[in-house]
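We modelled each protein-ligand pair independently. The example shown here corresponds to the zinc ion entry; the chain sequence is given first, followed by the ligand as SMILES.
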Amino acid sequence: MQNTPLSVAQRDQLADMLAGQLAQRQSQVAVRQGQESFVDHAETERQQDSNDVMQRDGAREVDGALSARDFSEIANLSAALGRIHGGIYGICTDCGASIGFARLMAQPEALRCAACAAKREAQHATD
Ligand SMILES: [Zn+2]
């Protein structure tokens, strides 16, 4: 099944969505970084309690994982916006087919059409 290329209106809609998601991610990261420095400051005032230190270390690991995911999502969203500006957005990087509008609405940073994404997942599963 061949997907039709995006219309200008569809591409604009997706660009708006990507820009909105990117701004949302960036503000979430900013809020979390603000919270982290606040927590660090509070912890130094009662660092003699060993239970607190253990809990703080656990919390910091979770924060690190979340930040890494946030940063990779920010990178993916930025890259997708870059592809829109470069005129290559919505084209499968594997087979060159158009990625359907419905798929892009669900996953605006998608690099591949549904068929190639499924193929890649199957290959990874057999690695
Ligand atoms: Zn493809």
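The mean pLDDT is 83.
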